[in-house]
Input
Amino acid sequence: MKTTTKKKGIGRRGDLIFHWALLIWPLAQFAVFYVAVNFNSFKMAFERVPGKSIFYYFQNIFDADYMWLDVWGAVKTSAIFYVISMVVSVPLALLFAYYISKKLWGGKLFRLFLFLPSIVSSMVMVVLFHQFVDKALGTIWEDLFHSSNKPLLISPSNPDSYISVMLFYIWTNFGTTTLIYSNKMAEISPETLEAAQLDGATSWQEFFHIVIPFTYPTLSVFLVTGFATIFTNQYNLFSFFGSGLGFDTGTMGYYIFNAVQDAAGKGSYDATVFNQYAALSLVVTAVLVPLTLGLRWALDKFGPQE
Output
């Protein structure tokens, strides 16, 4: 009995060591690439101004009307971009993944085109897409409609530019998720699909009642992680327009990055710039963390089961 108990104790200790060994790497990454890298930002956000409280920069976000209006405009733009990308890219990714997993005609070719943006540099893809839309499509538009009005011309002064940028973002980002979805769908037992077909299930019924519930855990992960980056994602706006967008038309990620790099580029290393945006970033994080956790809870609570 003593020998058996001793062996169990050693086994539990070995399991504990194994689990902690697995946790060391992600914990180290969090400590280095989030806490250590952002430590100076945390410090700057709470840096005391003579005669003011340590929360001065946080109060200034809401006291300065011009800044609050810019922030609110960036929040709305970020939300619009996120909703559009989810409404369009998620259904498309699931449908393409289902097509590929069924090993239908052209499935391997789809894999190639979907994986291509992940191989080529994003900046190269931006330049190629920019030239294609402005030059090739612009010329075709003029030849067909004899009009110099090019609706998809990528320019800060053209409101329809967002359509082109959104199409580019969907194309370059939903490819990876499609491949992951298709790999997950390929794990579905063939016997399960055959049983559904014998019961007279159509492809749509198979897709909604078998494939979606089986793929849902992976889908929920992408929905949560995508929502968590809603205020840091620039949606390639800076790559397309540089600093040419107004703060009221850019996303929150674009807003913060553009403001900080613009101040740094001009050599204006003023605490009122960097400290202010460090505080704004912490406010955004404080708002987004509970919303992300709430979304995760809702997806787990009300999502379909296998």
Q: What stands out?
A: The mean pLDDT is 79. The chain has eleven helices and no strands.
